[in-house]
Amino acid sequence: EDKVVQSPLSLVVHEGDTVTLNCSYEVTNFRSLLWYKQEKKAPTFLFMLTSSGIEKKSGRLSSILDKKELFSILNITATQTGDSAIYLCAGISNSNSGYALNFGKGTSLLVTP
Amino acid sequence: EPEVTQTPSHQVTQMGQEVILRCVPISNHLYFYWYRQILGQKVEFLVSFYNNEISEKSEIFDDQFSVERPDGSNFTLKIRSTKLEDSAMYFCATGTGETQYFGPGTRLLVL
Is the peptide bond before A8 cis (omega within 30 degrees of 0)? Predict the structure, then answer.
């Protein structure tokens, strides 16, 4: 059974800190890994990663995939209170015909002023 | 920026009733999905829909559930004979491939 595990489950940091969120996956016939940010309701798309070692970057957020170790990290530098959210990692398998996202439980990040 | 929209935002229903949740996808998207999130739990895949048919479904998506795109724009999830354990947030997502964009969700409460 495919599995996506995120750590830590929750994290509290001060504004300005840098955080690293972890996602390990066991996905049969791995295709891609996606990161989402969930604030009050809907997950909002951050990154999709398919190739090992290539960093994706958007402002203060960046992410990288290690297909050998079945691992991805999401980095947030100079955190702001607006970064407080649940960060979700999801894997997609090539075995599926419909690109179903298999989500982890998420990391709840709280950035304090 | 185009967004996925969902109606209603909240729905309260009695056990055994049928509910229909509606989604309007982003206009050029071809792949449609339903997910649910029970309070305090992870987001779970229900079904994907492409080219007017189901392309994949999870074990959760049993005969109680059905999806359709009745008029070429709306994408609906029907839950027949609702149970207490169907109470959850239901998200529609749409995309042109693997990247999926989520709607704001419908919170369903079954009493």
Answer: yes
Q: Into which CATH architecture does domain B5-97 fall?
A: Sandwich (2.60)
Residue B1 has pLDDT above 90, yes or no: no
Task: Spell out the domains of chain A, with CATH numbers in brackets.
Answer: 3-112 (2.60.40.10)
Residue contact A98–B97, C-beta within 8 A = no
Q: What are the distances in angstroms from CA A102 to CA A17, A58, B21, B36?
A: 29, 23, 22, 12
Question: Between chains, do A104 and B42 touch, taking CB under 8 Å as contact?
Answer: yes
Per domain, the residue ranges of chain B are 5-97
Share of chain B above pLDDT 70, in %: 100
Which chain B positions have a beta carbon within 8 Å of A102's beta carbon? 45
